[in-house]
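Box 3.1 A note on notation
Throughout this textbook, protein chains are presented in two layers. The first layer is the amino acid sequence; the second is a token string describing backbone geometry. Keep the layers aligned when reading.
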Amino acid sequence: AALLAKQDAEQQRIRAEAGEASAERNAALAEEKRIEAEKNEQLAKVREREAIVAKAAADRLRYLALGKAMGLKSTQLRTEQKELKGLLAQHAYLFNSKYEGDPYDNDIYDGLYYAIKELDDPLVKSLEGHEKGIRTLTSSPNGNLVFSADTEGKILKWSLQGERRVADTLASSRRQNHVVRSLAVTSDNSRLIAGGEFNRGSGASYVEILQTSGKNEPKQLDGFEGSVWNLIITPDDQGFYTLDKGGKSIKYSNFNEVNEVATSNIRLNDIALSNDGNYIIAAGNNGKIYLFDTQRNFAQSEIYNNGAKVLNIATSQDNQVAIGDETGLIKVFKLFGNQGVTRLVGHSSPIEAIEFSRDGRFIATASRDKTVRLWNRKRLNAQPITLKDHPDWVFSIAFTPNGQQILAGTKETVVRAWPTNIEVMTDKICSKIDRNMTEDEWQAFVGDDVPYEKTCQDK
């Protein structure tokens, strides 16, 4: 009996151990399934997040493309549809802004520009007052004055009255023997320097100093030879530099006397001044860029070889240099430093003018391809805004003192004007329109699968 009891106990122990082992296996299996379930849950969450991100990215691309298409559509609407044109352009901007598109997208800009032009906004009004083509423009470093001159010697001063510019005549077109090629104004806006030639082909040049108040006759300065162009006033307002003698002489004047400070065996097509006034940077007809050190008796050195003929040069407040050549190529580089050269490709004909905006946002370039282009300095490799609402070559460009417009002088008798601040353009539209798109307009021009939104929230 004792033996049977012992055997029975042993069998129970074995069964218990087997049950315990089975329970442990079941527990381990359950743990494996729990871990697998957690992994699957985590994977599902990751895939859900990925799906959300992918959808957001797809939505972003879709709405950005939709915004560009709407901007383009708005430019194709007729004059009698100017309210719809404005609403479509404005909502194109809203989509582009919400989905973080290029803030200076060309299609978005075009839509807004032609919309506010159709709504007769002063921001895009051409300046009328000349009888001949506008040869040169300049704006005051301070204040709000703009100056223009045409091919028959007429010089106008444009002041801002409210939102519109009004012209005063500083020199009349009765001086038909004057061809004005360059203008420059002192930083206190008291004196305007004009230079050019008397008669086409005569070889006789002139430089004159005009009081911007218009109260006195122009003061003639002697001592220049051949055509005079590109007058540059020094940062201290004590004088100016200019090119003459067929681009082979750089002269300096203190507004009373004229002296030659540097000569070149190579024709210089353009000159610019460093921000501190210590260096003259010159564009050579041979494609080379030269530096003249004003603090070392105008010692000359070569700083860059472009290869192709350089026609124009400009410098920024932070001493960036931009050059434009005969092929239409723009190059930008730092005056001092080891940074590389950035190539701006877009123009298809020789460059006529280059300007940096004083606020540091843009480089403006004009070409014989009949376009002006605005390059965003923060994204120079991005496509520029192309301004083409004019029928002819652009001779000269200038930013307004506040940087809100780029002005262009062409063979036309008006100064063309384009806004540079897209946010300012968008503020104009809803203030001039007292409605939103109808449901039918939204479905036709935006899409029946895009939820309807108000364009002007207070309408």
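Residues 2-75 form the longest helix (74 residues). The radius of gyration is 34 Å.
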